Amino acid sequence: MATRASSSLAPTLLLWALSFFAVRRALIASAQSLPPPKYDGFVYAEHPVYSGTIVIEAFLDPVCPDSRDSWPPLKQAVDYYGPRVWLVVHLLPLPYHDNAYVASRALTIVNMLNTSATFPLLELFFKEQVKFYNAQTLNMSKASVVSYIANFATQVVADSLKSAVVSGFENTLTDLKTRVSFKYSASRGVFGTPTFFVNGFSLPDSDSTTSYSGWRSIIDPLITAQGDPREENFYFL
Ligand SMILES: *[C@@H]1O[C@H](CO)[C@@H](O)[C@H](O)[C@H]1NC(C)=O
Ligand SMILES: *[C@@H]1O[C@H](CO)[C@@H](O)[C@H](O)[C@H]1NC(C)=O
């Protein structure tokens, strides 16, 4: 009896061991996706970046009210500077915003399907953000939230892509990609949104980033300090 029990146990153990290694390999495989093949984030306007281009990195959460309020003045400033400024938005879905990760995944999916729909969707999330707050979705199941957000996101793409947006939530790749955004933000030490880096340095918490004139007061001096690129201008710190 005992022998038979242990002999039937052996294949079970073997199966368990195999599945354990399979899971482990899957985990290692996803860990190996770092660094990602492409720099993380959504580029606001594609244009060449030179050593003198001012780089703004914005860390935003699509369901964060402060991120929403910070977007119009930043956008206005970036539009004003044109190719002198390069803006990339990184997502940091905050754990205390229940639907931040699903909303971020929707942005990742839409970005993969139609790059030009990314910012329209971000702005739509900002505009109708209240629908996705914790209190408003309290009684919804996780599955209904995912389907609600997936269908919401289809608004920014053509009919031909709508079903791909919805099925994007069943694709593990879109989950992994959204995780990379989170990991990137965390790796930069960002723990709240909105957070801004200019030329690689974090801006101190200030009111400057809440208005267009504030952004002008940050960027204008940098452009002045770079001097006229046609002159030989050595700038010593
Ligand atoms: C959630 O359900 C409770 C109990 O039925 C109800 O009192 C509450 O108003 C509901 N909240 C929302 C946002 O629907
Ligand atoms: C891509 O997105 C843009 C902006 O929302 C939209 O105008 C265009 O129709 C979309 N194209 C497709 C194929 O979804």
UniProtKB/TrEMBL annotation:
CDD domains: DsbA_family (cd02972). Keywords: Signal. InterPro entries: Thioredoxin-like_sf (IPR036249). Residues 1-33 form the signal peptide. It comes from the Eukaryota. This is Uncharacterized protein LOC115729077.
